[in-house]
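ARCHIVE CARD
CATEGORY: sequence design from structure
SOURCE FIELD: tokenized fold
FIELD CONTENT:
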């Protein structure tokens, strides 16, 4: 059992509303896919990876110059499904989607929420995924079978190939919506989920605390899934607060919040190490394989002043293999997210916060395009990895953002076991990081003996000195999200 740490102390509207309402009122075609990767003209599914080909040119949306920078503009070029700058992951945001570029980890964005027809679209950091200029309603074309219109939630305008040109590098813009070729898009899926149950925007949700669903609790819905389940089951959860303990012990289960943001669907409890031990204090536990959660929040809201000791309080415990979290919030204080040795997990466009060791354990996990927040004003270590010596990969923070409540007092981590493995790669480190000494010891485990590294980070909390070991370019080739998650079965949820 990990040594306890002293518990932390808690320290123009009408027009915009009309545009948002109009965009969300547009029908969104969500259908189950019936073919594998490479199927053209598929309606989007959460977590799917697609190329977007113009109906007027046949060319694909591309981030100019394959840039990873904020503000990089969108253009069309000849389609190449292997190009990360042309692949976009669809991340469900209620009845709309974020379109997250695979190459950069940034979202398709309307510059300054412009409502001017002809504005060229750009990419920008996704944040917590709730930015309205980055949300897109996708509806089937009524003029051409198998093509889709992509409409901005904030402006009410549609994505278009400017002037319907067939020229390479022609701008991708937003225009007043019309069901014409330059605004009709072929969505060709290249990876990701291929046969989930559709997420209903109407009808009866699986779970609703107010009694309007088939079940009142999330656990009751999970219990109804056959223990030998072999196909994807989507449990839709109506917005609300579900104060319960949830264990996902059935494979191929998706928990899908139906709110407009992950904060709308809250699974919460307040157990602590004082009553249940650290590993038993979880609000939610994933013990089965191939479990997915999207658009919801897991929280442990323990009041640390309510217990005399044992203030560790886990919001989410991961034991299962091949877990995927997309657009999820994981909230707590000390020991928020436990990643046990048996776990492999991919966390995309999500938010995790805590105070002390709030990502911990010996499993393998990739945070991709996520926001990680140290919320205590006196700072603390973000990670307490316990990676076994025989395991190559532990934690990867990839193209993510690290923030905190104060400057200069947050540690990137400390080793719970001697061979802990943690890498912060191409991430933005804010001034919250203790620049001179961002790694610390834990008990008799010395951080210099652990496998702690950084690579090409940016921001005021990023620098290079003798206390900040860096990967070389050649080493970095073996420390990608795909490498971390591949295991012996080649699992690749990244695309």
């Amino acid at each position: 059992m990990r040594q306890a740490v002293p518990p932390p102390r808690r320290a123009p509207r009408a027009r915009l509303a009309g545009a948002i309402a109009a965009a969300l009122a547009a029908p969104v075609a969500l259908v189950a896919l019936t073919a594998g990767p490479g199927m053209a003209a598929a309606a989007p599914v959460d977590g799917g990876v697609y190329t977007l080909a113009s109906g007027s040119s046949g060319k694909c949306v591309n981030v100019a110059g394959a840039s990873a920078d904020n503000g990089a503009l969108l253009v069309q070029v000849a389609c190449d499904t292997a190009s990360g700058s042309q692949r976009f992951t669809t991340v469900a945001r209620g009845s709309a989607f974020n379109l997250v570029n695979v190459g950069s980890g940034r979202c398709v964005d309307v510059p300054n929420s412009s409502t001017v027809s002809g504005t060229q679209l750009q990419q920008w950091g996704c944040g917590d995924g709730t930015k309205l200029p980055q949300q897109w309603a996708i509806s089937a074309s009524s003029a051409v079978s198998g093509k889709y219109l992509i409409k901005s939630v904030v402006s009410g305008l549609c994505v278009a190939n400017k002037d319907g040109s067939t020229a390479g590098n022609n701008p991708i813009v937003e225009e007043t919506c019309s069901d014409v070729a330059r605004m009709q898009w072929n969505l060709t899926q290249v990876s990701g989920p291929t046969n989930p149950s559709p997420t209903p925007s109407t009808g009866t949700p699986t779970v609703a605390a107010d009694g309007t669903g088939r079940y009142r609790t999330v656990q009751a819905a999970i219990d109804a899934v056959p223990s030998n389940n072999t196909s994807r089951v989507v449990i839709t959860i109506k917005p609300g607060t579900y104060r319960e303990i949830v264990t996902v012990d059935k494979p191929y289960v998706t928990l899908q919040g139906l709110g407009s943001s992950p904060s709308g669907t809250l699974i919460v409890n307040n157990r602590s190490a004082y009553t249940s031990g650290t590993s038993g204090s979880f609000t939610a536990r994933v013990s089965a394989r191939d479990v997915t959660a999207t658009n919801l929040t897991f929280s442990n809201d323990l009041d640390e002043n309510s217990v005399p000791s044992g203030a560790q309080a886990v919001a989410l415990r991961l034991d299962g293999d091949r877990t995927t979290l997309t657009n999820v919030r994981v909230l707590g204080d000390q020991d928020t997210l436990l990643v046990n040795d048996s776990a492999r997990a991919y966390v995309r466009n999500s938010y995790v916060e805590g105070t002390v060791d709030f990502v911990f354990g010996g499993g393998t996990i990739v945070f991709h395009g996520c926001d990680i927040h140290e919320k205590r004003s006196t700072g603390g270590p973000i990670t307490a990895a316990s990676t076994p010596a025989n395991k190559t990969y532990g934690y990867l923070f990839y193209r993510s953002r690290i923030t905190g409540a104060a400057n200069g007092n947050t540690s990137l981590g400390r080793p719970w076991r001697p061979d802990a493995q943690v890498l912060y790669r191409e991430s933005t480190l804010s001034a919250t990081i203790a620049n001179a000494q961002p790694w610390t010891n834990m008990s008799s485990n010395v951080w210099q003996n652990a496998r702690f590294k950084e690579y090409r980070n940016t921001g005021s909390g990023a620098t290079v000195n003798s206390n900040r070991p860096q990967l070389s370019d050649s080493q970095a080739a073996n420390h990608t999200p795909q490498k971390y998650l591949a295991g012996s079965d080649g699992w690749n949820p990244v695309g």
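CARD ANNOTATION: The longest helix spans residues 13-25. The chain has a mean pLDDT of 88.
SHELF: design records, drawer C
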